[in-house]
From TrEMBL:
TM regions (residue ranges): 257-281
Record family assignment: Belongs to the UDP-glycosyltransferase family.
One Pfam family from the record: UDPGT
Keyword Transmembrane helix listed: yes
Record Gene3D superfamilies: Glycogen Phosphorylase B
Cross-referenced PANTHER family: EG:EG0003.4 PROTEIN-RELATED, UDP-GLUCURONOSYLTRANSFERASE
GO molecular function: UDP-glycosyltransferase activity
Organism: Drosophila virilis (Fruit fly)
Name of the protein in its database record: Uncharacterized protein, isoform B
Keyword Iron listed: no
InterPro entries registered for this protein in UniProt: UDP-glycosyltransferase (IPR050271), UDP_glucos_trans (IPR002213)
Keywords on record: Glycosyltransferase, Membrane, Transferase, Transmembrane, Transmembrane helix
E.C. no: 2.4.1.-
Gene behind this protein: Dvir\GJ20284
Length: 297
């Protein structure tokens, strides 16, 4: 707020802003998240950033078109840059890639690497989604970020995840549980582990079948993600903030919001009869006891 205080005479507080939210655009969509109860103004628009695929640069287009056995795309992002790997790790990766019959596109921070196998292309600038859209791309090796995960599901490409941060681990775990991803530790992965993981993803059809099924669910919507977001933004503007969409929970007292009033009633219904019964039993037992006479001197 301090950055805008000089531009406006009066600014709403965070509490006031929270009470004025008409629509919430959620960066998720089935099947990446399980069904859950949401209010009417929470709109899932996962994949909002994914645009229609464009033609690749000539060298990449030719490289992938001629990949008769398929191709693997590697992009570990800026958080875990490939150039940060020790030389022996890069050599190990290149050794595994060179032993494959598939071609490999590696998004690397350098345009050239020594002893580069003939089936591997490295480049520091690659059109991410356009590569994933190519039908010959069979596996996507990446860090497990949400945007990249949505892109892989959108285009139906099985994933080999090398997560570095908690949210990335969570995304890859979901993919592993759904049967269209595998995970390796980028710090400790060995030649044998990388080779076996890639072989499993490339040769076991269940990963591609599961990913294609997930892709059909992810893409099957009444409107594309961007159109859905624009519709609800226009709707809120058209209806002057759409106050009728604001959650009624904002007007509840805290004890009502957390259902303490309902819990109190339920507690009373269950506990009070028990207490009453115990009190009656106690009085009944007291009445049955014989009264002792006091001694007189």
């Amino acid at each position: 707020m301090k950055h805008f205080s000089k531009q406006f005479k009066e600014l709403p507080t965070i509490k006031q802003l929270e009470r004025n939210i008409s629509a919430i655009l959620l960066n998720t969509y089935l099947p990446l998240e399980p069904p859950r109860p949401v209010s009417f103004n929470m709109v899932p628009v996962g994949g909002l950033h994914i645009r229609s695929a464009k033609l690749l640069p000539t060298n990449m287009q030719k490289f992938l078109d001629q990949a008769n056995h398929g191709a693997i795309y590697v992009s570990l992002g800026c958080q875990v840059p490939s150039v940060a790997f020790p030389p022996e790790k890069i050599k190990m990766f290149l050794g595994v890639f060179g032993s494959l019959k598939q071609r490999v596109l590696w998004h690397f921070e350098y345009d050239k690497l020594p002893n580069l196998p003939a089936n591997v292309m490295v480049q520091k600038s690659m059109p991410h989604t356009d590569i994933l859209a190519h039908p010959n791309v069979k596996v996507f090796i990446f860090h497990g970020g949400l945007f990249g995960f949505q892109e892989a599901v959108h285009y139906g490409v099985p994933v080999l995840g090398m997560p570095a941060f908690p949210d990335q681990h969570l995304n890859i775990k979901k993919g592993t549980a759904a049967g269209y991803a595998l995970e390796v530790n980028y710090l400790t992965v060995t030649k044998e582990e990388l080779q076996s993981s890639l072989t499993e993803l490339l040769e076991n059809p269940k990963y591609r079948d599961n990913m294609k099924r997930a892709s059909r669910i992810f893409r099957d919507r009444p409107l594309p993600a961007m159109d859905t977001a624009m519709f609800w933004i226009d709707y809120v503007i058209e209806h002057r903030g759409a106050p009728h969409m604001v959650s009624a929970g904002l007007d509840l007292a805290w004890y009502q919001f957390y259902l303490f009033d309902i819990l109190g009633i339920a507690f009373g219904i269950v506990v009070l009869p028990i207490l009453g019964f115990l009190l009656v039993c106690r009085n009944y037992n007291s009445a049955k006891k014989p009264k002792t006479k006091a001694k007189q001197n």
